[in-house]
Design brief:
The protein is built from eight helices and seven strands. By secondary structure, it is α/β, with parallel strands linked by helices. It has a seven-stranded mixed beta sheet, with helices on both faces.
Length: 241
């Protein structure tokens, strides 16, 4: 009889495979760079991608990058990340950067922007054509609500986003996986937690929207699927930017 961990991994992997088939996330000869923050989502993404890379089709090359921000105390053990990637035969790059906190923009925006800049730069240096990020279905649904409430537009983080200005696409292979399942698997798999959480993590609009959405699901347990259907109907899950 399979253990709970094995059964859960099977379900997660099935949703992962369905995502890349449904949204065309992986093709032969892709060179993919994973954004490995060290959180549970990016760890699962790395595990799923690495195990998929062992299968003959599609054939793709895989690397990971962990971006450290000098002036934001958001930290994980690079020793653990190195051991984790070594166990999966994934080449890990560690990059350090910083931003000027005096700029007239929220620290979350600046941190995200400078991390993303390092991802794009390294991807092009390595000759990667795709960047894989660990956003799950909850992230995508919450972003949809945030855009409606704060920007007055219907859109989200797409499952596949092709960049016009550079030969890169961003893919989100966890897009059909719910956060609750990732949280449970992280515990069963013994993923190491972050050493220090971001000091701004619980003081954002995203946190408030996540709380709001939990109330919405109490009213309608199928809410996430209704929102997902709307995103698919309006072709918001595959985009070009």
């Amino acid at each position: 009889m399979k253990s709970e961990k094995e059964r859960l991994f099977k379900r997660l992997n099935e949703r992962f495979v369905k995502a890349f088939v449904t949204y065309g996330l992986l093709t032969d000869d892709d060179h993919v760079l994973i954004g490995l923050s060290g959180g549970k989502d990016s760890l699962l993404l790395t595990e799923l991608m690495a195990k998929r890379a062992r299968i003959s089709r599609p054939h793709f090359q895989l690397e990971a990058v962990h971006v450290r921000m000098e002036n934001i105390q958001y930290e994980t053990s690079t020793d653990f990340l190195q051991q984790f990637c070594d166990s999966l035969n994934v080449n890990l790059h560690i990059v350090t950067t910083r931003f000027d906190a005096s700029e007239d923009k929220p620290p979350c925006f600046l941190c995200s922007w400078f991390r993303r800049k390092q991802l794009f730069n390294l991807a092009q240096q390595l000759g990667c054509n795709k960047i894989a990020l660990g956003h799950h279905r909850d992230d995508i649904v919450h972003t949809t609500l945030m855009n409606l409430m704060f920007q007055g537009r219907f859109g989200t983080m797409p499952a596949r986003l092709r960049m016009r200005k550079m030969p890169l696409s961003i893919i989100r292979p966890l897009c059909l996986i719910d956060e609750a399942d990732i949280t449970r698997y992280a515990t069963l798999a013994g993923y190491q937690k972050l050493i220090k959480q971001c000091p701004y993590e619980h003081d954002t609009n995203r946190t408030a929207v996540a709380q709001l959405f939990s109330h919405i699901e109490q009213l309608n347990p199928e809410a996430r699927f209704s929102i997902w259907k709307a995103l698919e109907s309006e072709q918001k899950l595959i985009e070009e930017y």
